[in-house]
Design a protein that fits this description.
- The structure is a single chain.
- The protein has 264 residues and is mainly α.
- The chain is built from 14 helices and no strands.
- The termini are far apart.
């Protein structure tokens, strides 16, 4: 019993160091707890500690993705033994995050697919959407906007299939925001209109978020119109400003100088 208590204390200290963003100490304490729980034969706790260690390695600006991947894969294996499917799915998501940090987006997509399969079997649509949102961010970090949009559309589809209208509306709003950044105002407005109508019918508070995105669309359209006007009139805009203000100014000055030269 005392060994379990010591292991639990090490786990708690590791979590505290993680909150304080002291990655090295968090890993050290979590590994102490891991060793103790492994000696006790607690496979579920071993899986949890491997998952925490993976998250420690991924935290902060200097991700240790290779170490995180190794720990996360061990977490998956442990939870497959204990048949804790929800935790297995969460572990696959951390595997994907590590793979994404290693620029291996193809493998990250496969891992997210496995997480989605687990969550779909559990009928946990919200977790399935969370996994697809994680894939969206992985694709964005790796400069793959088309793949990010595809993942965001997958979240909409998952909610629709599950009959989760509120989740679908939120997923549509997220998709519209993404489309505004990469596919232009037109595509974003179409998706946003559907999201807003759904939210109004469902009396969702996120309607205000739709209104804010509409304002951003208006701003983007205004900026685009200015840019189009500049492009249409680019030759005219290259004329010196003084001639734009007074187009006949140079000719009058030249004539006045010629008249002055003749008089002299």
């Amino acid at each position: 019993q005392s060994r379990r208590g010591e292991a639990a204390c090490a786990l708690l200290l590791g979590d505290m160091y993680a909150l304080l963003q002291d990655k090295d100490q968090a890993v050290r304490k979590h590994k102490e707890a891991l060793a103790a729980f492994r000696q006790m034969g607690d496979t579920s706790a071993v899986g949890y500690l491997q998952l925490r260690i993976a998250q420690d390695h991924l935290a902060g600006p200097r991700s240790k993705a290779a170490a995180a991947l190794a720990a996360a894969e061990k977490a998956v294996a442990a939870y497959q033994v204990t048949k804790e499917m929800r935790m297995e799915g969460s572990s696959w998501m951390v595997v994907a995050q590590a793979q994404g940090d290693m620029k291996d987006v193809a493998s990250a997509k496969e891992s997210i697919g496995k997480a989605c399969d687990v969550f779909a079997e559990l009928k946990e649509t919200s977790l399935e959407v969370k996994a697809l949102e994680a894939l969206t961010q992985i694709c964005l970090r790796n400069n793959l906007p088309a793949e990010a949009v595809k993942a965001a559309k997958g979240a909409v589809t998952a909610c629709h299939k599950a009959g989760d209208q509120q989740g679908e509306a939120r997923a549509l709003l997220s998709l519209a925001e993404l489309l505004l950044s990469f596919d232009g105002v037109g595509a974003a407005r179409k998706v946003l209109a559907v999201a807003k109508n759904m939210m109004q019918e469902l009396r969702m508070t996120e309607v205000k978020d739709c209104q804010q995105l509409e304002a951003r669309c208006d701003h983007a359209e205004a900026v685009a119109e200015v840019e189009r006007a500049i492009h249409r009139n680019r030759d005219f805009l290259h004329v010196p400003r003084v001639l734009v203000v007074d187009p006949g100014g140079r000719q009058r000055l030249q004539q006045e100088f010629a008249d002055f030269a003749k008089a002299v």
